Amino acid sequence: MTRRKMDFPVSEVRRYLEPGPVVLVSSYWKGRANIMTMGWHTVMEFTPSLVGCVISNANYSFELIRNSQECVINVPTMALLDQTVGIGNTSGADVDKFTKFGLTAETAEKVEAALIRECHANFECRLHDDALVEKYNFFIFEVVKAHVAATPKYPQTVHYTGEGVFMIAGKTVSRRAKFVRGL
Amino acid sequence: MTRRKMDFPVSEVRRYLEPGPVVLVSSYWKGRANIMTMGWHTVMEFTPSLVGCVISNANYSFELIRNSQECVINVPTMALLDQTVGIGNTSGADVDKFTKFGLTAETAEKVEAALIRECHANFECRLHDDALVEKYNFFIFEVVKAHVAATPKYPQTVHYTGEGVFMIAGKTVSRRAKFVRGL
Question: How far is B1 from chain A (nearest CA, A)?
Answer without folding.
Answer: 22
